Amino acid sequence: MHGLPALISVADFDALQEDPAAWLAPINRLAAAHGGGRPLVQASSGTVLVALLGQDRVLKLYPPFLHDHWAFEHAVLPLLHGQLAVPTPQLLASGDEGGWPWTLMTQLPGTPMTSAWPGLPEADKNALLHSIGQLTTQVHALPADTLTHLAPDWSGFIAQQRSGCASRQQRTGLPQHLLDQLPDFISGPLPDGPSVLLTGEYTPMNLLLNGSHLAGMFDFGDGLLGPRQYDWLGPLCFLAAGHPARVRSFMAGCGVVLDDGLRLALLRLLLLHRYSALRAQIACPGWQQSPSFEALALRIWG
Fold first, then answer.
1. What is the DSSP string of 216-242?
2. Full-model pTM
3. Taking CA 59 as the corner, what is the angle to CA 57 and CA 62, rounded to the nearest 5 degrees?
4. Is 90 exceeded by the pLDDT of residue 47?
5. Which range is least confidently modeled, 32-36, 95-99, 136-140?
6. Helices (H), 96-243
7. In this predicted structure, what is the pLDDT of residue 2?
8. CA gyration radius for the chain?
């Protein structure tokens, strides 16, 4: 293949992604146009095609069906860069390759949190969660008016998520006794508040460390605008679940104290999350045995 297909399904894109030789030619063209040497192509389970240009730049190619993700990230990168205590990539260039939008950005130094987190002392984990909470607060304080036309309406988004929640939770393995309680539970109140920039990326997959300190955050294509609590779900699930001290550390970084009402509202929001799959997201062994959602909220968030 010397180019990229103008139309491609999600399944065909997944196959293409795992065959870097099939998209090396367009990557080489873009790299040559921007002064890069031979790009290092990365095959991964992510949602875009990624190549490293040298030691300091990243090239991302988005499939045509994710043009909205490209547009959102393209707008968010300059909004965040240089505005936070933690570095984010700088947008260097962007364009279109046969209907596939692309961005060229700086590569951030650091160690992926996914590999570093398990070996950290508990005190460092608590300190990092506090820092992540502070980072969410910094992002949520930034003006997001220029992004309104790039994100779905929050109330419409929630309505859509509610309508498909039962089928998604059944497909992703929610235990039957909880599935039976799901319709009544998700009809309850959700967190509310001003509409802010939701990056959804405060997870170990999108954070970098320098030792035991935050060193970078990246990947903003699937962001939204809505209540800030949506962004709390990643750290609370992937990093803090089942550890009350970690939960308190993160919430202290956000300047908030959890109570029973907020726990339940957050659990409803987790069930309605665009990528909700509790079996993969709740790092708390045995959570499936919780007899109710009320008990589950206490189990995972203390």
1. EE---TT-EEE-GGGGGHHIIIIISTT
2. 0.92
3. 155
4. no
5. 32-36
6. 113-116, 122-140, 154-171, 176-186, 233-234
7. 54
8. 20
Q: In the beta sheet, which residues pair with residue 111?
A: 209
- Which element (helix H / strand E) includes 210? strand 207-210
Residues 56-97: tens digit of each pLDDT: 888 999 999 999 999 999 999 999 999 999 999 999 999 998
Tokens coding 151: 């994100």
- Rounded Cα distance between 155 and 221, Å, is 20
- Tell me how crowded residue 35 is: count the other CB atoms within 10 A of its CB: 9
Fill in the DSSP letter of residue 119: G
Distance in angstroms (rounded) separating the CA atoms of residues 8 and 211: 41
The gap between the terminal CA atoms of the chain, to the nearest Å, is 53
- 172 phi and psi angles, rounded to 5 deg: -95, 5
- Rounded-to-integer distance, Cα 185 and Cα 188, Å: 6
Residues with Cβ within 8 Å of 240's Cβ and at least 6 positions away in sequence, in order, are 129, 246, 247, 249, 250, 301
Residue type (1 letter), 200: G
Residues 6+ apart with CB under 8 A from 163: none
- Residue 187's nearest CA partner among 227, 159, 224, 154 is 159
